[in-house]
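> call design_seq(struct)
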């Protein structure tokens, strides 16, 4: 097994000593990079890119070269799981994802299979993971990921992105048993899928609960958190003799950090609606924290970005357990130089907090 040359990210996830704060960012392989757009064009579209292990590896490594990121994240999409469960998925040019035949009733949910052999059902993703590990050659760790059951359900029931989530909320309120059956099937499928990624070489995994924050506290616990807990409890937590950290990210979920930490995850992903010192005071002796710069800060000029990085580092202060990141993904129209400056600022300004 190739030795890991930079393991700052894995150490920070486990709240161990580091020489500086590691940094990566959500959507770091994406449209703001001309290199990404060129590879996507060669692939002939986003989904074809996801299905080519060699090209997935190429785009996964682009931000490692360009930004000097401390972790790589598998290039794929959360929606390949419902697609593998039999739902047709399309990405039109310049459009978000669409499921032309969304889930509308109990019978639709009953028909859905539970995935249990990811090497068969999502073999191209497993191949991408092992190809990326080969190409990384131990430079930085590789993060695998999946969507939370609730977040996947929103796309499957709405048929795509949504403004007010009318269909998925109506199903949750009117037919809670149907919703629970859907979430159960998704949780068990996602657990098998993440275990497949870990077996193929993922050294950490993140669960993206992008839409957990649209729920109230009771419903978040019943319809989102419960099923993330169900996944966490099924995961293989070791790879190459090292612990595989689990990161839980519920956008809009900063009121529920204590409950999230209770799932047994290792790291909480923060959006930018909470100050990191407050999050640290609430849960920082139990889990590491990942975040939490507002992604739109990357539209500001480089001096302003650096000042913000310094402010977040100062708020976290001394001590272990911080992985620097944005509070959500980088947007497509950010100048790449700004992202480069962001990563440089974290590397330079964080050293003083680890002496
Ligand atoms: O972070 C990374 O670099 C890894 C790659 C990654 C993608 N999607 C690539 C992608 C990850 C981790 C995701 C997760 C994902 N996908 C989430 C959860 C995280 C989040 O951002 O909230 C969600 C909700 C999806 C579903 C999805 N995929 C949407 C809503 C869209 C369109 C949104 C948009 O920004 O246009 C996608 C498309 C997508 N996934 C792109 C990328 C790079 C852009 C597609 C393109 O290249 O045209």
């Amino acid at each position: 097994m190739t030795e890991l040359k930079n393991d700052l990210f894995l150490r920070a996830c486990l709240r161990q000593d580091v020489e500086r704060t590691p940094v990566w960012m959500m959507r770091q392989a994406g449209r703001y990079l001309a290199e990404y757009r060129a590879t996507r064009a060669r692939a002939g579209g986003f989904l074809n890119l996801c299905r080519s292990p060699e090209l997935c590896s190429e785009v996964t490594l682009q931000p490692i070269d360009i930004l000097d990121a401390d972790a790589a994240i598998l290039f794929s999409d959360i929606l390949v799981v419902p697609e593998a469960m039999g739902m047709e998925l399309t990405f039109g040019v310049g459009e978000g994802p669409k499921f032309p035949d969304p889930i509308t009733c109990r019978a639709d949910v009953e028909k859905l299979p539970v995935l249990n052999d990811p090497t068969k059902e999502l073999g191209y993703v497993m191949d991408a993971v092992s190809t990326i590990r080969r190409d990384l050659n131990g430079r930085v760790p590789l993060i695998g990921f999946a969507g939370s059951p609730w977040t996947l359900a929103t796309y499957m029931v709405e048929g795509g992105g949504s403004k007010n989530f009318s269909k998925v909320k109506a199903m949750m309120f009117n037919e809670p048993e149907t919703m629970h059956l859907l979430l159960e099937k998704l949780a068990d499928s996602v657990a098998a899928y993440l275990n497949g990624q870990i077996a193929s070489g993922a050294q950490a995994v993140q669960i993206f609960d992008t839409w957990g924050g649209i729920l109230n506290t009771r419903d978040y616990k019943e319809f989102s958190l419960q099923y993330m807990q169900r996944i966490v409890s099924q995961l293989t937590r070791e790879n190459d003799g090292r612990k595989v950290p689990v990161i839980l990210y519920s956008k809009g979920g900063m009121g529920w950090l204590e409950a999230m930490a209770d799932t047994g995850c290792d790291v909480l992903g923060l959006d930018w609606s909470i100050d990191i010192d407050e999050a640290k005071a609430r849960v920082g002796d139990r889990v590491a924290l990942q975040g939490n710069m507002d992604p739109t800060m990357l539209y500001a000029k480089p001096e302003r970005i650096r000042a913000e990085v310094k402010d977040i580092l100062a708020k976290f202060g001394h001590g272990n357990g911080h992985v620097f990141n944005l509070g959500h993904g980088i947007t497509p129209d950010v100048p790449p130089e700004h992202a480069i400056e962001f990563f440089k600022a974290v590397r330079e300004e964080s050293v003083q907090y680890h002496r």
